[in-house]
Each structure stands twice: as C-alpha cells, then as structure tokens.
Predict the structure.
Amino acid sequence: MARRHDREPGPPPRVVCAVGWQYRAIFEGGATQPAPGSPTRQPRWGGAGMHRLPNAAGLSLRAVKHAVEAARVGGLNLLFGSSLASLSLAARPRAMIQYLADSLFLHRAMCGRRGLPQRNVVDVLAGSPTQAIRLGSLGTGAEWFWPQASYTQDIVSLCLICQILRPRRVFEIGTLWGYTSYHFALNTPPDAQIFTLDLPRDGTAAARLPLSLVDGAHIRERSPDDRYRFDGTDEARKIRCLTGDSATFDFSPFHGTIDFFFVDGAHSYEYARSDTQHAVKCCRPGSVIAWHDYGKASLPGLTRFLDERAREWPLYSIPGGSVAFLVVP
C-alpha cells in the first residue's frame, strides 16, 4: 500500500543495515539518492542537513530522534556484532584470524576502498549476458562453496573467463590440489591444454624468494600421497602437471603462446612481481592474466604489487571476490 508523503517516518529498524537513506540525509548535509530498491519518495523534511534546527520548516523533532536512535543502534551492532563476535573464535586462532581478515576484505569491497576498480569479467570481456559454466567436485567438501562467499565469486568468475575467452592454452602457477586446474579443463574447448606448475610435493625444490606465512602453511600441508581433484576424471587428459619453483622455472617454451594465465602460487610481493613478469612474456595481446587473493589482508604483498601496477595497466578486481585480472594490451 502506498504511504502518504505527509506521514511521519516510523521507528527505525533494529539492525545496522536498515538505517535508511532518509536518515543518511540528515548527517550528510543534503539530499541523498535512494539506494537500489529503496522508496523513491523524498523524506518529509526534504533532505535538510544537520545545520538546520529541529524547528526548521518540515523537520520534526521526532524525525531527529529516530535518526539518532538509528545511528546508536547501528553503532552498537557494528561494535558488538562484528568486532567482539570474533572473541567466540578465541579457541580457534586460525579461524579467528580468517574471520578478521575476511571482515576487512568485505568492508573494503563494500566501501569501494580497494585499489583496483571493481568490474565483472563479463563486462570487461564483452561476453554474452547469458553464460553457462561447469562446476566440479560438487558434494565432495572440496568445492569453493565455503562460509566466505568470495571464494564462490572467484571460481564462478574464473570459469566465466574460460567460457568467454575459449582459450586453447592455459598456464597456471600454483596447482596445490588441482581445484582450479580442474575447472579450467571443465570450461575450455576439448582440445585445450592446461599447464599447471607447483613445487614438487616431495620437497626436493625449495622456494627461492620470500614467502608469506599463508604460503608456507600451504606448502607444509601438502603430502606426496594427496590426489588432485581432477584425478580419474575425463578432463585429466587436458591437464599437464609441471614441477619447479616459478622463480627459476624455464618459461621460454611458453613465450607468446598462452591465452589465459592464472597466478595463484606464492603471494609475497617478490613472487607476485616475478610470476607476473613471466606471465606477461608468455601471453600475447588479447590474452587474460588473472591473480587470486587480491585484497586479502593476510596476503598484502600481492595486493601492494598489483596496486602499484595499476598506475600503468588497466587492472580490475571482481566485485565481492579476490580475483584481479588484466586483458593484455
């Protein structure tokens, strides 16, 4: 039912995200545009700024009280709903660190405080508005459908890159358990070749450049007996596993031949720079280079490197996810 314009606004909802655009107008000193899906009517007081007194034309004392109450409830929800909530994870330090890192990641993404502009891959690559992708490892517990929704955004975007680009040759740094390798194989043409490089699992080759703490943990978690996600699948025939340290690996046979290059190995500044230099040499104009874990607070080296390169390259990050990508000029 339509509401009359001359009615007083009701009490503010008791959640932080429901502080409406009407109330924001009071604190921002002017009229504001409604967020998508919000009512299009202007607030009764015409978007007056806080410099107008409650007795000014059209601005009621009740409306000011509602706005102050909404701000108070929002502040309490922000303080006790997120920051102190992390204390419940004190017995699980790793989960607590992950929670805080993901909270910072989400905050930066929603506030537009990431160094790279956020664009969907479909928009940048001029793909069809309707795309079909293939997902694997479903129901195994290995899929990227975790409590952190950014991983779902990431795997969907990577599959979309493959579906739109239709690459014949893909190179990946950082195999780990082969989850992304498997999805590259699932979403590329039947004759595509997927090359994926990682340190040997038996520890015979060590990293030559500095590692982040997260990278070191991933290396220690691996076992020579671990199976890849693509083992035993039809797509395994498209995947060729390579071993070695990406800082010293000979990429020359791949120079100028790669359509899609994915960087997801070590995430230190030094490795991000080295891996990217190799990726550029391997690609050609129109190829796509993508990086994983951009914007993660626990992996600042990669983020700092890409933010610096953004001064020279047209780099983008996907909305709500941690994939950054570049169409090679």
Observations:
- The chain has nine helices and seven strands.
- The chain has two domains: 16-85, 101-327.
